[in-house]
Design brief:
The chain is mainly alpha-helical. The protein has 6 helices and 2 strands, in the order H-H-H-E-E-H-H-H. The chain has a single domain, classed as Arc Repressor Mutant, subunit A (Orthogonal Bundle). Helix 1 crosses helix 3 and helix 2 crosses helix 6. It is globular and about 60 Å long.
């Protein structure tokens, strides 16, 4: 696949951002979502839930560069947001269910948009820290018996 074609991972990152941001839930209105966007760890978590894999750094960096360069998402101070064009893409895509959302979005991207190339980088350290944040946050806290809680005795 050439550089001018959208990759499956581009659509995967876009759908993960949409869902992590809450835009996919019942096609919620923009006013009911997180206005600040989502952090990288949230996007990686959602991507893992979608595809049972954490996206590698080069895939994330390439997808974000292409999506920002096309005007579908924005990144500012570590927060990833959908733009009005990204919102429109999501709301007007053929809706066939979440199981095929990434494939559907990849098709829509290929028909409607040319990949951009924004100046955005993701260092190994930033990616590793976001992966660690996600993994540590996904480990459930140990359950304690009522007798071992403070104030019980």
């Amino acid at each position: 696949m050439g550089e001018n074609a959208w990759h499956w991972s581009d659509a995967w990152i876009f759908v993960a951002l949409v869902i992590a941001n809450g835009a996919g839930r019942h096609r919620r209105a923009a006013s009911t979502r997180r206005p600040e966007g989502v952090r990288l760890a949230d996007m990686l978590s959602t991507a893992d839930h979608l595809n049972h894999a954490i996206p590698e750094r080069p895939a994330v960096e390439t997808a974000v560069r292409r999506l920002v360069g096309t005007g579908l998402i924005s990144v500012s101070d570590g927060w990833f947001r959908l733009t009005p064009d990204g919102e429109r893409l999501w709301r007007t895509r053929p809706s066939a269910g979440l199981a095929t959302a990434v494939d559907t979005v990849q098709g829509v991207l290929g028909r409607r948009y040319t990949p951009g190339d924004a100046d955005w980088t993701l260092t190994e350290e930033e990616h590793a820290a976001a992966v660690q944040e996600y993994l540590v946050g996904s480990i459930p806290a140990p359950r304690r018996s009522p007798q071992s809680r403070p104030g019980r005795g």
